[in-house]
Amino acid sequence: MKCKNRILRHIVLILLFLNLSTLGFAQCGGKNFAYKVGEKIDYNIAYSLGFIWVDAGKVSFEVKRAYYRGKPVLHFYSFGTSLPNYDWFFRVRDVWESYSDTCCIKPYYFYRNSEEGSYRARDKYWYDYEHQKVYVETQNSNKSLLLDTLQIMPCLLDLMSGIYYVRNVDFGKLKINDKIDLQFILENEVFDKLYARYLGLEEITLHDGQKYMCYKIRPYLVEGTIFEGGEKMSVWISSDGNNVPILVEAEVLVGSIKAEVQKVSGLKYPFKPMGK
Fold first, then answer.
1. Which of 57, 174, 247, 259 has its CA 20 to 30 A from that of 43?
2. Roughly what angle, to the nearest 10 degrees, separates helices 159-166 and 2-20?
3. What is d(CA 207, CA 55) in angstroms, rounded to the nearest whole number?
4. Do residues 196 and 25 make contact, with C-beta atoms less than 8 angstroms apart?
5. How do residues 21-68 score in pLDDT, each as one tens digit?
6. CB 157 within 8 A of CB 164
7. CA pair distance 122, 138, nearest whole angstrom
8. What is the pTM of this model?
């Protein structure tokens, strides 16, 4: 059982690192060109300890229209869950939300509510651009409620606004081995020294046989309990204008994890596999 719990925690964290890892490629400035309100993307999460992949979770991302303090905003929403077969010994329900400016993906408010087995975590951030502050409220099963105030840095994003921010990168203008940096906030800590390396165009084939031409990037990961650190994750992003993450593969301390796109709807531009 203990081993199974470790495996499931790896799967849970890929839901996070699917977002986290892509934060290294965004740049400050620019407007949204890659998505619109009504978009929804679903992923399947699989784990492998050798040559056999086992489906273990799902995660979805949505772009909604909302209002924050009377101002129209983009509402980025993500929900991750373990499959029913795993719920009886390690139940996962993760909600991530961010409310951001409709023009330049500048976050105003972030919310996270995680349930992973017996572990619970809840985070809230309020961005005060007038005073250049971020007000943080964070609490989890290992730490009591913490209220803090952090200084806003240029391009400081949360995980949800970060993944939508990166989708507006013009990857076609990058050269192979280019690195792009970004700062983001997680719980009560700011990460400002990560990057992703651009590796050019590559054709990939998913497990269902569908082929896509994608931009390939390899983010630098923070060393921790799941990852060794370094460039141990690869992300393939569609080159069709939508900039949809198609496939994520990562080495973990025990085995490998991948997230593969399953279903898309409401995209801004036509989206289809190669040859169709």
1. 174
2. 50
3. 12
4. yes
5. 333 333 455 578 899 999 999 999 888 877 788 888 999 999 999 999
6. no
7. 6
8. 0.85
3 state SS of 117: coil
Amino acid present at 230: G
Q: CA-CA distance, 54 to 83, in Å (whole number)?
A: 11
CA distance 235 to 18: 9
For residue 88 the two structure tokens come to 């009886």
Going from the C-alpha of 93 to that of each of 15, 74, 86, 239, the distances in angstroms are 11, 23, 12, 31
**How many residues in total does the chain contain?**
276
Burial class (CB in 10 A: 0-12, 13-18, 19+), 3: exposed
Q: Which two tokens stand for residue 196?
A: 């992703």
**Spatial CB neighbours of 40, under 8 Å, sequence gap ≥ 6:** 60, 61, 62, 63, 263, 264, 265, 266
Decide which of 11 and 41 is more confident.
41
155-189 burial code (b ≥16 CB/10 A, e <16): bbbbbbbbbbbbbbbebeebeeebebbbbbbbebe
* Three-class DSSP labels, 7-68: HHHHHHHHHHHHHHHHHHHCCCCCCCCCCCCCCEEEEEEEEECCCCEEEEEEEEEEEEEEEE
Helix (H) or strand (E) segment spanning residue 151 = strand 143-151
CA 241 and chain centroid, separation: 19
Q: How far is CA 84 from CA 25, 113, 256, in A?
A: 34, 20, 21
